[in-house]
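Render this sequence as a predicted structure.
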Amino acid sequence: MATSANRFVHRPNAIDRLGRTVVYAGELLRHPVYTRFLHWMVGIFFFLALLSGFGIYLPWIFRFFTPLFGGGAMTRFLHPWFGLAFVFFFALQTINWLGVMRWTAADSRWMKRIKSYVANEEAVEPKDVGFFNAGQKMQFWEIVCGSIAFVITGVIMWFPEIFGRILVAISYVVHDISALIMLFGIFFHIYLSTFGEPGTIQAMTRGTVSEAWAWTHHPAWYQEVTGRDPYEAIDEARKQMDVRERESGPDSDRLSSL
């Protein structure tokens, strides 16, 4: 249990008073309550729209989804509202993140080494990687474009008698392709936030990350919020680890011999 000496409660504005973010010693605030709320609303309504959409458009494969929503007719009724809720909450997140999602020269440099990132060849990100890296920004803007496509094609399919058969047919194709692209990106996002980069999901559950996570994945952001050089912090942590290993070495040997 943490004491008042090694934690503080982050409450920056009225919206964040819906909950609280406790930051412990050795941690940094990553996402306040409002950001986390929008993130989970986006995720929930995306998968509700996805599952209901599968039940409607591919019933011969996914017919077991429609009973979850009250049957075929209710599924067809709810699907566009799930989609609108997804777009609404993501629009709020877009406004929330617009400043940190702008493309920079550092992002262009990051893209040149994307193969080494995917292959996990480097333990630490380049020193100029800020709050989000270029890959995260690309996924963000892909979802922005996908959301716009969802709204336009969704409205056309919602009112086919107004727009005509050709536009409706094109909308089905664009709508489905957009959903599949977004689904692939979200699955990749889930992988990175869990197994790919351990400790990441804590940012969207508790709102905090460890300092080690910050200097590993977002060194420029770490330096911005702490004022410390991330590589110096890494060297210091390694030295402390070496000292602890030397101090615990003999004891560990004795214990293993018992």
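Summary. The chain has one domain: 31-257. The domain at 31-257 is CATH 1.20.950.20 (Fumarate Reductase Cytochrome B subunit).
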